[in-house]
Write a structure and sequence with these properties.
Elements (H helix, E strand, L loop, with lengths): L7 H33 L3 H21 L3 H20 L7 H5 L1
Helix pairs in contact: 1-2, 2-3
């Protein structure tokens, strides 16, 4: 009977992937927290924009972990964040008016 141990290269690859997941998790916490904070302060454009910035990290983690329900909800959130940002593009003091 022979024991098989993972090669050092594979162990290092696993650690690198874990590091990427930690960055993604930190980004999810940051952007989701910022989005909720902005919505509670009625800063809708900032809320929608920060929500959109966090979506790629939601897609990555849900796809990587095979959480298909979370992946589908992420698509729904992305569409609604984009719709909200589009709806608030002409509000008073809007970023879009300042650059136009």
């Amino acid at each position: 009977m022979q024991l098989h141990f993972p090669k050092k290269q594979k162990v290092r690859d696993l650690r690198e992937r874990k590091g990427g997941m930690m960055v993604a998790q930190a980004a999810i916490v940051f952007f989701s927290g910022l989005s909720i904070w902005a919505f509670s302060g009625k800063r809708y454009r900032l809320g929608f924009l920060s929500g959109l910035c966090g979506q790629p990290f939601w897609f990555f983690t849900s796809f990587h972990d095979g959480q298909w329900g979370v992946f589908l909800v992420s698509i729904w959130f992305t569409l609604n964040h984009a719709r909200g940002l589009w709806a608030h593009r002409h509000s008073e003091g809007s970023f879009w008016r300042k650059i136009a």
